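subagent[fold] <- orchestrator: predict structure for attached chain, return tokens only, no commentary.
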Amino acid sequence: MTTFDGSSDEGDTLIPPKELLYRDMIIDRIGNIGSYLHLDKGIAAALEYVRNADFSTIAPGKYEIDGDRMFAIVSEYTTQDRRNCKLEAHRKYIDVQYVVTGSEWFGYAPLHDRIPASAYSDEQDEALYDGEASFIKFGAGMFAIFFPEDLHMPGTGKEPTKVKKVVVKVGVE
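subagent[fold] -> orchestrator:
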């Protein structure tokens, strides 16, 4: 295993220092969720929900987990060209995203000093942004955690691809 300083630390579980936990998005495979259950009770509950639910039997829609504090949105869609998409950020919720089937590329950039392309919508808990992003392939069995400080552009692809994804919205306290 590689640690934050690049050295090898075989056999130990890598847990980032507390000051790094809420600075950047997290991406990993669902089999590794044990490394993230200490972050926050809500994030732990969202990861357990994603790990234990049988999404092959769950239709697209919105599903209440803990009222407005936590809910899941199951979606099926075809990826789009990133030139037709914008980065987004949320204030009220952390996104725990999980790809059930298919794969997409998502854009990521830190929110720091970005100017919104559209005004924040309290109803949708979303502001949209233009600008550069780094893109990461996000495949079946992977999850990502996006904090309010993270801009993200989900649902893009180099070629149109069908994706089934779950987004668990975890309220920021």
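orchestrator: received. Logging for downstream: The CA atoms of residues 15 and 35 lie 7 Å apart. The longest strand covers residues 162-171.
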